[in-house]
Amino acid sequence: MNLYAKLAERKDNPLRIGLIGAGKFATMYLAQVPKTPGIRLVAIADLAPDNARANLARVGWPAELVQRTPISDDWRKLVASPDVDIIIEATGNPIAAVEHALAAFEQGKHVVMVTVEADAFCGPLLAQKAAAAGVVYSLAYGDQPALICDLVDWARAAGFPVVAAGRGHKWLPHFAQSTRGATTGSRPSRQSSAASIRRCSTPSSTARSRRSRPRQCATPQASHRRRKG
């Protein structure tokens, strides 16, 4: 299956998209919308419509296209619209995202869940609700959770036993360190790089690094700000 070919087949019958949330993550998707065949963005719902319009302009949408795209703060109206087939939920707020998804299922809409915190919170239940409504519930392809699922599927199809899967980050102190090359464009010498690694790997520097790092807030809102903008 070729995704581009499948989308191209829908040139005259595009998928009709409604987007809830037009922050940083959604704006990256919006940058692709004018160039992607087979889809039509019907409308956007965001708590700050003016910010959504500014984000569209920031990623290169022509002024006339921004003007033609309905943008409001009424997500219920968007979900109930008969002109929308698929809801993309990209608010980054898991509680709101679950409410949006359930309302979309009731209206017979498919849902692409970009707010991964909502899926981590109650993804299996959302999938059951979608199946009962006869619609599709999906993660966003390209975001890390969906890529992990894709990788697990590939591994199993290739005959490999999968014993664990998850995020690929390593929260080690030296990953937070910047090298001279990252800030000046010059490439640090091997000797200086090795010295930096040795400093970062010593127990004393590790302890100092942990103490000096600001404490991260674990609230959904803070997680949204860090991950989605």
Task: Please tag this protein with its features.
about 230 residues, alpha/beta, Rossmann fold, 2 domains, six-stranded parallel sheet
Q: Could you walk me through the main structural features you see in this protein, from its secondary elements to its overall organization?
A:
By secondary structure, this protein is α/β, with parallel strands linked by helices. The chain folds into two domains: 3-148, Rossmann fold (3-Layer(aba) Sandwich); 173-217, no CATH class. The protein has twelve helices and six strands. It has a six-stranded parallel beta sheet with strand order 3-2-1-4-5-6, with helices on both faces. Helix 6 (94-106) runs parallel beside helix 7 (116-133). The longest helix has 18 residues, at 116-133. It is globular, with a radius of gyration of 21 Å. The two termini are 33 Å apart.
